[in-house]
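Action item from last week, closing it out:
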Amino acid sequence: IARTCELLNDFYGHAPAYAFVGTANQSVETSIEPALTEIHKQLIQADVVHFDETGMRVAGQTQWVHAAATDSLTYYDIHQKRGQTAMTAIGILPNFHGRAIHDHWKPYQNFTECEHSFCNAHHLRELQFVTERYEQAWATELAQLLLDGKAEVANADPEATSLSPERLAFYDQRYQTILKQGFEANPPPEPPPIKQRGRPKQSPPKNLLDRLDKHQSSVLTFLSDFRVPFDNNLVERDVRMVKVKQKVSGAFRTQSGASSFLAIRSYISTVRKQGGNVI
């Protein structure tokens, strides 16, 4: 607010009161309500939507910014919860029937009316960790397979919507062959000598292998449906602006201030994606 008042003073020779800035934000937020309603509606109707969430300090407490985005739409909202309760309250995922792109976090997968695909940038980081920490060759091979698939999609015929059935079969078979090597290198843990509640603790490589095996189709969707990107970077870029704001200002002192900022950022981001002039 201080910087905004200083800037207006430099432009016009008059520094407004701090309350003026808050009132102006509220006026903008009210004016863009119809646009935000339409953004929310169009995201529900979209074929593919990216989802992510990040923490934010508001009024002395950690809350959660939830983001939903396409290449032409951005919507932010804030909630005290991070998981399914917040996602349900925001109202996009419960009514969404397209394909949701996100990381492997379980609450997203609880919404069963839509299909799910997972961010392979996350997988590459996890596979690199297994390679460096555990020195297991299968992780390097699988990372290279994913990168090869990404390159093949990038070089595909612009009119194509999927790799050929032969190439899809190749990637499926190669994927399973590499996972088999991984399971051989990471057998299930021995049962404890004394019966304990719950499952025996597994190593990080075994946990990753189980996830990649169970969700193979969601990991490799980008090969069979070119509308689905390789990663979730689109929405992560949108979230980055929120993190920059928090880094500069530290926190929001009021709930209304945080909500107003996210509403206006939703509008600005959408306008920029669609090639409009924000002013």
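Closing note: The longest helix spans residues 165-185.
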